[in-house]
Amino acid sequence: MTETKRLIRVGHSPDPDDAFMFYALARNKIDTNGYRFEHELVDIETLNRRAQQGELELTAVSLHAYAYLADKYILCPCGASVGDNYGPMVVAREALTREQLAGCTIAIPGTLTTAYLALRLCLGRAFEYVLVPFDEILTVTRAGQYQGQRVDAGLVIHEGQLTYEEDQLQLVVDLGQWWMQDTGLPLPLGANAIRKDLGPDCIRDVNRLLLASIRHGLEHRPEALTYALGFGRGLDRDKADKFVGMYVNDWTLDFGPRGRQAVATLLDRGFQAGVVPQQVVPEFVD
């Protein structure tokens, strides 16, 4: 009789670092024992919104969004995307100061992204924004408008951090560098989270399998990178390798004490600034 495996629906972004991280699970490179994983690839803001409904058992989330999800999801200690003195960037067609940026209309990939929270903290105030799909932000920033709305600058996540100069755009601020200078900590951007109602045994199993997938990718880098290239939106292999190295590394294997401190600091500062509506103490799988 065929064994019925427990279904775990996985949500992650269609970008090279997430693809690299999930390569082993997506291509059946590791034994998942009594579990069957189905992958759903959508942008991070959509995943953030879906997580509010608890739709997926395992999902990538922005750490800003986690503040709204802590009742439903617990954070995995592995699977993090951390900017270690680098991170989301604000770019523009011309050189701007931070003071000038505060008066601009900025294309952003979502209000629940950590990039948005970090920019709010960096500017110290609310700002005008236009919601734009993350993979169109460089294009609309160069064009100066999106669906009839003015765009003065763009908040860039994912591989656009490596390619914005090809669009003749200039860096205004690297939020990972700003955060490091301000706090002395890396900027925790995204994490993987498991739905709490799965129960402690399943939660531990899923976390263990995610860690095994990350390790497999790092130990079989050429094969995992070839897979990840399929999600690179025009990146050549060298740039894809660089981008994956930025966001799949030792931080991804384990947040560690400093990474956990960074998450707590981010959420606390978001609350103190009035962007995050409640005080949240991050909870991690044992």
Index terms:
D-Maltodextrin-Binding Protein, domain 2; alpha/beta; 5-stranded mixed beta sheet; 286 residues; 2 domains; 21% strand
Helix content: 40-55%
Q: What's the average pLDDT?
A: 95
- Pick out the low-confidence regions: none
Beta strand %:
15-25%
What's the CATH superfamily of the largest domain, by name?
A: Periplasmic binding protein-like II
The radius of gyration over CA amounts to 18 Å
CATH C-level class of the largest domain is Alpha Beta
For the secondary structure, the number of strands is 13
Summed up, the helix count is 13
Distance between the termini: 34 Å
Oligomer: single chain
List the helices and strands and how they pair.
Elements: E1 6-12, H1 16-26, E2 35-41, H2 44-51, E3 58-62, H3 63-66, E4 73-75, E5 81-83, E6 89-92, H4 98-101, E7 105-108, H5 114-123, E8 128-131, H6 137-143, E9 145-146, E10 149-150, E11 153-156, H7 160-163, E12 170-174, H8 175-183, E13 187-195, H9 200-219, H10 221-229, H11 237-247, H12 250-253, H13 256-272
Parallel strand pairs: 1-2, 1-3, 7-8, 7-11
Antiparallel strand pairs: 3-13, 4-13, 5-13, 6-11, 6-12, 9-10
Helix pairs in contact: 1-9, 1-10, 1-11, 9-10, 10-11
